[in-house]
Design a protein that fits this description.
Strand order of the largest sheet of chain A: 10-9-11-12-13-14-15
CATH topology of one domain in chain A: Rossmann fold
Number of strands of chain A: 26
Distance between the termini of chain A: 60 Å
Helix content of chain B: under 10%
Largest sheet of chain A: 7 strands, mixed
Distance between the termini of chain B: 40 Å
CATH class of one domain in chain A: Alpha Beta
Oligomer: heterodimer
Strand order of the largest sheet of chain B: 7-2-3-9-8-12
Structural class of chain B: mainly beta
Largest sheet of chain B: 6 strands, antiparallel
Radius of gyration of chain A: 23 Å
Shape of chain A: globular
Chain lengths: 503, 102
């Protein structure tokens, strides 16, 4: 539906590529309908894509939709054994393969391979018949996205066409993008934001330029070369982009709107962005794979009002994820599932047509359609949502639940601290001990003791990290998620042998 | 009268208009150009012309609704006829003010 409407109503606008020689929405429609014909000729239960960004992502997504087959983008950088294990879960499959991928899948049963370049050539062939673009039933599974649970076993989140369509139609105005708008997409194809951006840019009529893979210098160069007006980044990308922009002083004059999401954004980085790119509208988007991406957002006016405000309640909103989207219901619940009193912390539950909460083999929504996000949060009196991190990351020390995010925030407020992560490591006496990894800003010379004293002064001893390790960088995955398990193992190895400190 | 379901595709018999039902509450006499809309799969061609008063036309991508009836449809293909429930024209919904987030 989304592509057919764009191909009809926005036919001559460029959908993909440069303004001069890019593919129009009408042509994207033709190539996607041909892709559906190609897919129908290679029967499979799933269309898998193991690749970096390319036109095969939107054409594969739309072509699969037209062919009523779930589209499954998989992380190109997974270790071979994990890649093979995931692909095996969705056979019989057609695999659209990027560079070097066929060799990594040798011997796997139930797969047919097509190389990306060949797939793209096939869909340009006018001799290939175009399937009916309206093929699909809203209940059909549109996308499977493998998410890594805390146990490490990836689950496949299921998104049906009605979930994605509800999000798009509910939050985007058809064709509302101005003709000179251009979005740069650098998130990998297996990230929910990559999928949702294909749909929202198509529905709004905004041209897309893709980066095959993220690199901050290439990102900045591409934004300038293509006059990109819109961009979405995960938090780990923003700091690196700002480094490049600050170092050459040439700014990003074409950029109008920069949205960020996929993980917590440290307040110092947001403030840096507001200072370095004052004319750019910032948007903080909170959402999950399971909710078809964004369910709450903090818009540009709220960013600016908070940044300029002396009122602590308003200023604090810079650390919020804003207000819930219309069409989504949100409730903060206690561990028993009862709504908390206003302003209290609890678990974020959501409900709505765009909320799926379904995994292959498992539905997690309750009888009334509520999905438990496993994120801790609270709502302020203005209805602004604050996300405190994953419930599973809660540190339990001496029977007390401590949120790492709260301690990380205090560390980040210290001069010289650029990034901080707090985890609990096993302790015989206390159950867990609090330790931290800190990245210092270039030239900063804060000591472990100075940081501990600072935290103790704000949060009291029970929440003060007993040890702090200074590191060059924190471990993040490509989606910008902090790999707390990796950090926990590392710090347990470093600090675990010591006796429990004073608490 | 048709019991409309979200996701249902309907088309006009008086013009080229096609819609997808976004929200519905049971039986609604959904018309375009003054004539009841039919399921898009029905074979009958659009032979009529929109009746006077119901010829204001539809625009692709606009959402039309009647809050009282609990009905909202999205126009997926434009046409010359106007949408109504019985004789009452549907209203066009205003643009969404949300910024792009992905």
């Amino acid at each position: 539906m989304i592509l057919e409407m764009a191909a009809d109503g926005l036919a001559d606008r460029v959908a993909l590529g440069s303004r001069d020689d890019g593919v129009t929405f009408a042509e994207l429609g033709r190539r996607s309908r041909r892709a559906a014909t190609v897919l129908a000729g290679m029967p499979c239960n799933h269309v898998v894509l193991v690749d970096e960004n390319s036109p095969a992502v939107p054409i594969g997504l739309f072509g699969s939709a037209i062919a009523s087959t779930p589209f499954v983008p998989v992380n190109y950088r997974l270790a071979d054994d994990r890649l093979r294990a995931i692909v095996s879960q969705v056979t019989p499959a057609l695999v659209i393969a990027g560079r070097g991928v066929p060799e990594r899948l040798v011997g796997l049963e139930g797969i047919q391979l097509i190389e990306r370049a060949h797939f793209l050539t096939m869909v340009e062939d006018e001799a290939v018949e175009e399937s009916d673009g309206w093929g699909c039933d809203p209940e059909t599974v549109a996308v499977l996205l493998f998410t890594s649970g805390t146990t490490g076993d990836p689950k496949a989140a299921v998104l049906r066409h009605r979930n994605l369509a509800s999000y798009v139609v509910g939050s985007v105005e058809f064709g509302a993008a101005a003709e000179d708008e251009c979005a740069i997409v650098s998130v990998p194809p297996y990230h929910i934001a990559a999928i949702s951006s294909v749909l929202t840019t198509t529905y709004s009529g905004r041209r897309v330029v893709q980066l095959e893979a993220f690199d901050p210098a290439r990102w900045v160069a591409t934004v300038r070369a293509e006059s990109a007006t819109h961009a979405m980044v995960v938090p780990t990308m923003l700091g690196r982009i700002l480094d490049v922009v600050e170092s050459d002083g040439l700014g990003l004059p074409s950029l109008r709107s920069l949205s960020y999401g996929g993980g917590p954004m440290p307040a110092p980085v947001v403030e840096r962005a507001l200072r370095t790119l004052p004319d750019v509208d910032l948007v903080n988007a909170y959402g999950l794979t399971e909710t078809s991406s964004t369910i709450a957002l903090l818009g540009p006016e709220h960013h600016r009002a908070a940044f300029a405000s002396d009122d602590p309640t308003v200023r604090a909103r810079l650390g919020s994820v804003g207000q819930v989207l219309p069409g989504v219901e949100l409730s903060i619940r206690d561990p028993a599932g009862a709504p908390v009193t206003a302003g209290e912390r609890g678990e974020i539950w959501v409900r709505g047509e765009q909320v799926s909460g379904e995994y292959v083999g498992l539905t997690t929504t309750d009888g009334e359609g509520w999905f438990r996000t496993r994120d801790a949060g609270h709502l302020d009196e203005g209805g602004f949502l604050y996300v405190h991190g994953r419930l599973d990351d809660v540190i339990v020390r001496g029977g007390e639940n401590l949120s790492p995010g709260e301690i990380e925030e205090v560390l980040l407020a210290c001069d010289g601290v650029e990034a901080a992560a707090v985890v609990g490591i096993p302790d015989i006496e206390w159950g867990e001990r609090i330790v931290a990894a800190v990245v210092l800003s270039p030239g900063a010379s804060v000591t472990e003791e100075e940081l501990r004293v600072h935290v103790q002064g704000t949060l009291r001893s029970a929440r003060t990290p007993e040890r702090i390790k200074f590191v060059g960088e924190l471990p993040f995955n490509e989606s910008g998620k902090l790999l707390r398990r990796v950090l926990r193992d590392e710090l347990a190895g470093e600090f675990g042998a010591e006796p429990a400190g004073a608490g | 009268m048709a019991g409309l379901k979200p996701g249902a595709r309907m088309r006009s018999v008086t013009c080229t208009t096609e819609v997808v039902v976004v929200r519905a509450a049971g039986e609604v006499d959904l018309r375009c150009g003054g004539e009841p809309m039919v399921d898009v799969a029905e074979a009958a061609a659009a032979t009529g012309t929109p009746a006077p008063g119901f010829d204001g036309g539809t625009l692709i991508g606009k959402r039309y609704s009647d809050e009282g009836a609990g009905l909202e449809v999205l126009c997926t293909k434009a046409g010359q006829g106007a949408l109504s429930i019985g004789e009452i024209l549907l209203g066009v919904q205003g643009a969404k003010p949300l910024p792009a987030s992905d």
